[in-house]
Amino acid sequence: xxxxxxxxxxxxxxxxxxxxxxxxxxxxxxxxxxxxxxxxxxxxxxxxxxxxxxxxxxxxxxxxxxxxxxxxxxxxxxxxxxxxxxxxxxxxxxxxxxxxxxxxxxxxxxxxxxxxxxxxxxxxxxxxxxxxxxxxxxxxxxxxxxxxxxxxxxxxxxxxxxxxxxxxxxxxxxxxxxxxxxxxxxxxxxxxxxxxxxxxxxxxxxxxxxxxxxxxxxxxxxxxxxxxxxxxxxxxxxxxxxxxxxxxxxxxxxxxxxxxxxxxxxxxxxxxxxxxxxxxxxxxxxxxxxxxxxxxxxxxxxxxxxxxxxxxxxxxxxxxxxxxxxxxxxxxxxxxxxxxxxxxxxxxxxxxxxxxxxxxxxxxxxxxxxxxxxxxxxxxxxxxxxxxxxxxxxxxxxxxxxxxxxxxxxxxxxxxxxxxxxxxxxxxxxxxxxxxxxxxxxxxxxxxxxxxxxxxxxxxxxxxxxxxxxxxxxxxxxxxxxxxxxxxxxxxxxxxxxxxxxxxxxxxxxxxxxxxxxxxxxxxxxxxxxxxxxxxxxxxxxxxxxxxxxxxxxxxxxxxxxxxxxxxxxxxxxxxxxxxxxxxxxxxxxxxxxxxxxxxxxxxxxxxxxxxxxxxxxxxxxxxxxxxxxxxxxxxxxxxxxxxxxxxxxxxxxxxxxxxxxxxxxxxxxxxxxxxxxxxxxxxxxxxxxxxxxxxxxxxxxxxxxxxxxxxxxxxxxxxxxxxxxxxxxxxxxxxxxxxxxxxxxxxxxxxxxxxxxxxxxxxx
Length: 765
Known about the structure:
Strand order of the largest sheet: 3-4-5
Number of strands: 5
Strand content: under 5%
Shape: elongated
Largest sheet: 3 strands, antiparallel
């Protein structure tokens, strides 16, 4: 900054700009509130159909989000301008004070342009008036005065240029629309950019020369700023994509001689997560520089890096392990995935995997007991599992599919390849691993969970500070339903039992998906064949609901019932949904009573399909061991314990998945937005009694013949019927004497005992 520019600075234009921005912030705040509380709120409640249900609703949601981002961006710009103006005014005052002090020693400064200046005597002795005594100064005084002026100009220049830099970066974050980047002042934004540049310098080094201290510094910085948009973009774009991959491969390579250096290994593990999240945040920027970076990264995918580390991996081999963590740009993930699948398809040959083989010892993943990270498809599936919008796009139902998916030509090519055609191999370590576990199947399940539910597979839908507005937690859309229809078709097909049993790691995910669509499954089971569906008893919770067709729903349930885990998860979701339907339809009108009956009879039919499949599969699997068959049924009968951990809110239930972490929740729809007596009974006292009883006699609990198993199921349905009557004392259930018979008939006389012509037979492989 030139000396005179600061010395005689007039900030009136900047003051006017700040005033304008302050007014803009106030106006945008009002518009943001209108968009959220009026525009979006009305859109959420509207009963739209056709294209309005998809195109217009999505447009309204995006528009409301843009108003929020516009307010955030305007507020950030205002704060940075105000902060910068305050700093520059302060530096101007410092400069003039310093010049005044210099005059007292007969020193002054002259602007010589381009940021330079000279220190001169204010009045030369030869030109001083006769009799005037001039202040004296030493060379030290001159040097001190010069340094003070130079330091002030340096700080002012830094304030001015850094403000310009961060404002440009913020605006460039979004090519269209507005950035959601938020900073309280210029200093915090400028510091984020400066820290990014410092961290990038470490990444540019040869990984073998990086010290443990430098690694710790890098990890600490990334951990602090990994979700900061300015930091992430500046950091990523300071290092070429190839160098990023080379650096991580060099740090993570287990054959660099780390040996027992646990600190170094721990730093490498931290780097995988911190670097992955940071790069994901960077891809959310729409700047030209970042988009170029993304294109280069995708292009690097099939190529080997040409390094000595990690068996000279491909770009896919490294990047897929980094993207296991973080929120990535949807288009970037889809472009990356398209290229990865195309490359993988060409090499999908039995006993000739390009990834998992004896000569590839490049272990690049530090997370997961049975996942060395050699198969890049696994890491990519994990990325989709954490990025629901991207996964929904990646597995989108093809254009032109019919009302229901009933042929493979209506299945997404990526989905068909990954579930039916691809050769998945175990990537477990030679020591301490389980070669029967295929981590890729588990990750594929995670990707499909996010694609169908709209949640990251390990998200907690009940977390967060926002109040649970009815329906706000249900993330299903016509697009997610389109993926779910394909999944139900594939795993409900003739090959479904074989697929489920050969991909056993998917059982929990398939159960979670079935549970997430239990209302649509019940709707598909209602009516007569595919006619007269009962939307009154099974109302749509979102527009463009999934349509499985009656036979498709039966087939899918009959396959889910074959596995202990998927059977238990879907049964719990079905039971909760039926109870919530009873809560939603108290016996105050004939219409409500009919809805309650339909909920019970259709729920009984779904339960019957699941339970009959479970019995037949246990008998088939353990045909020579009755005791093991009984124990298997005993475990399946324990699904009721899941009720103890159920949390209900916002029209959905979060059911804890047995044997998993607290974050592994099943998201299941409820018929009512609030919890009633029927649901409370299930998640309250009755469950506690059941658990107490099982603890008293664990041996008896583990033994259960098919006869007892069916009787238990019938009793649970009967209990729901009885409790409904007790909760509605004015209802004379004797007026409909067929209720109990219809419910029991729906449960006992349907399902896999009719598999010869209705569902899928048990797996016999």
